[in-house]
Amino acid sequence: GEALEVNREVNCVTDFIHGCEDQLQKLKQQKEKGLLYGIPISIKDHINCKGHISSGGMVKFLGQVKEEDSVIVQVLKHQGGIPFVKTNIPQTMINYDCSNLIFGQTLNPLNPQKSPGGSSGGEGALIAGGGSILGMGSDIAGSIRLPSSFCGLCGLKPTGNRISTSPPGSSAGDRPFVLAVAGVLGPMARDVDSLALCMKALLCQEMFQLDPSVPPIPFNEQVRLRATPMSPPAQQQR
Known about the structure:
With 238 residues, the chain is of the alpha/beta class. Helices cover 28% and strands 14% of the residues.
């Protein structure tokens, strides 16, 4: 309901993922609940979800319904998360705004006269507007970091190949100029703890088995909690 309300105001959702209720009923019957049990998760448009398109904001991809979930969606479901909407992006996703000729312009919920940033702009707008508490974006040159900044959120661009991008969700994924810098998937949320929980959930045996090209290195809580002491300010020379 909240997602619908936010979408009416800022136009950030491109599709509602069917089967959410069925998935929740299955999860209730499982003994192992998973780290993301029952959490609705929004998914950037280009990440493949079974039975849905990954448009990249381009008309040529509108007829191509995906036959399987991408690895990241499979892992989110394995951990009890419920992908429930797909969110808007700029056309081709090589852009720091968030509009295309199919779904139109996404607005910033903090100020509708401003852009939410891009290319994970629909994610930024939906989470900032209160329609989602955790989302999956992607970043090559700022596409998680910019909308997180524009919308007052937390976002993480993980190290390249830390999280599976298989099968390639990006409709721009085969372009050599994109591959010069590794594109990565990563979480967006309202606080750092949510990002850490999501990374901990994703970096699991399920992902390492589904995509053997990902180094099987689990999340290290100690590294996250290791605070760097602030050095005292340099005394001014008199």
